[in-house]
Fold this protein.
Amino acid sequence: MPKRNEMQIQFLSQSVNEAFARVAISAFITQLDPTVEELYDIKMAVSEAVTNAIIHGYEDKEDGIVAIKCGYQDKVIDITIIDEGKGIKSVEEAMQPLYTTSLEEERAGLGFTVMQEMMDEVEVCSHPGLGTTVKMKKSLEK
Ligand SMILES: Nc1ncnc2c1ncn2[C@@H]1O[C@H](COP(=O)(O)OP(=O)(O)O)[C@@H](O)[C@H]1O
Ligand SMILES: [Mg+2]
């Protein structure tokens, strides 16, 4: 069985870092030789989770810490996005398609739906006042 590999990064909750997160995750995943579509899906899912951490978790406060942990073994990838922001009162409700607490029209309430569509598994754990952890898994084609 191939060895497990892992990486971790942390950055401040500034929107400019959304692009950084996408590039960093791609660079790590590229070692597995993903298809263009698999890479696209993973970048999209990470992007949604990181955006949520920045705009909802830290409410645009720019000095929060967002951490991404990513590992893989045997073409199965796990990605965890962690913030220590405001947290979510009801995860079940937040994950409903079109549910949003944002007043801006561009936020359509589909972030979690996109994550679920792009990845095989999405698990959200959150505590109000403590933060949110989003764990996702995806198996790449062999
Ligand atoms: N990391 C987070 N911290 C706090 N609240 C969050 C976080 N991620 C999601 N949420 C809550 O879940 C809701 C739904 O998220 P999402 O499906 O991405 O839609 P949108 O971001 O468009 O509102 C958000 O409006 C927000 O209330
Ligand atoms: Mg969102």
User: Anything to note?
Assistant: DSSP finds four helices and five strands in the chain. Residues 48, 52-53, 56-57, 83, 85-88, 94, 99-102, 107-112, 132 surround adenosine-5'-diphosphate (ligand 1) (CB under 6 Å). The chain has one domain: 5-139. The longest helix spans residues 36-57.
